Protein: DUF2383 domain-containing protein
Organism: Pseudotamlana carrageenivorans
Amino acid sequence: MKKNEKYINSLNSLLIMNAEVEKIYMELVDKVSDEDLKKFFSDKAMQRHEFTKDLKSKIISLGGSYDNKGRMHSELYKFWMNIRNFVMFNKSEESLMSEVRDMQGLTINRYNELLRMLGLPLSICKLLIKQRDRIQDAKDSIERHDLIAYA
């Protein structure tokens, strides 16, 4: 496997994850009643959409092609099901936000795994750090119960 191919495959995996998280956020926009939560989820969905556009651009710059139609990561599936349970059974918003925070933690870990790859081009490192830090900011805002700060 060529060096760039390894990076392209990893970026495609991250692309799929961001596309799936975007879908989760969009579903939540339609399901929650609290206006602050609606705005938070809508903003996070748009943010993940931008992340996927930037990742597609990097994949192309490496000479690859992108595929964001892959199957959902098994770890994300657990969050998807828990969030659906929230929606179906009207569990507390606190438990929903706990799931969202954990989902963000999972995606941060995926970013960190990719950032540990040896020889990753600097421009990709910078993009991944920027995206990871924005996800971390949102996660921190949930932990502080301050959704407006990073909405």
